[in-house]
Write a structure and sequence with these properties.
Bound molecules: nickel (II) ion
Structural class: alpha+beta
Strand order of the largest sheet: 1-2-3-6-7
Number of strands: 8
Helix content: 10-25%
Largest sheet: 5 strands, antiparallel
């Protein structure tokens, strides 16, 4: 198990566009393992490679249903809308209200570099959008409606989603 340092908003690495992964190598495999270790250690539901300082298009997600690795993910379909709280390991202790599609379909490569498609609704749809945004240098704070709250002072009950 190896933890990597989670980069915090303001770090320029979080504002860059990540590069496509062309082949699976021992280094990439190790990166993915470390991303899972780091995400679980920080109690996150998703983590993108730039959040640990690596500009590669790799995302790991676990909303409590098991880990999913997405390499070079592309959102190919969205539908509906959901509005709820969102947070990010790169901005600890904060949340803001963000509207996202309620349904998302992505195409990505798995750890064997084989293509697959994944559909998600609600928290999974939110996580897919949030993590894919990181790969293009975007943070959810760009989309927050109203103010960014400290997690202790959220004005609305948190029945929606958290990351
Ligand atoms: Ni994030």
């Amino acid at each position: 198990m190896a933890l990597r340092e989670v980069r915090i908003q303001g770090d320029p690495v979080l504002e860059k566009k990540c590069k496509v992964v062309k082949e699976m190598t021992p280094r990439v495999r190790e990166l993915i393992e470390d991303m899972y270790d780091t995400m679980y250690e920080e109690n996150g539901v998703g983590l993108a490679a730039p959040q640990v300082g690596i500009l590669k298009r790799i995302v790991v997600i676990d909303i409590g249903e098991g880990g999913i690795t997405l390499i070079n993910p592309e959102i190919i379909e969205t539908d509906g809308e959901q509005t709820g709280y969102e947070g990010c390991l790169s901005l600890p202790g904060k949340s803001g209200v963000v509207t996202r599609p309620n349904y998302v379909k992505v195409r990505a490569l798995d750890e064997n570099m084989e293509e697959f498609e994944l559909e998600g609704t609600e928290l999974m749809a939110r996580a897919l959008c949030h993590e894919c945004d990181h790969l293009d240098g975007h943070m959810y704070t760009e989309l927050v409606e109203g103010e960014l709250y400290d997690n202790e002072d959220l004005p609305m009950p948190q029945e929606e989603d958290e990351e």
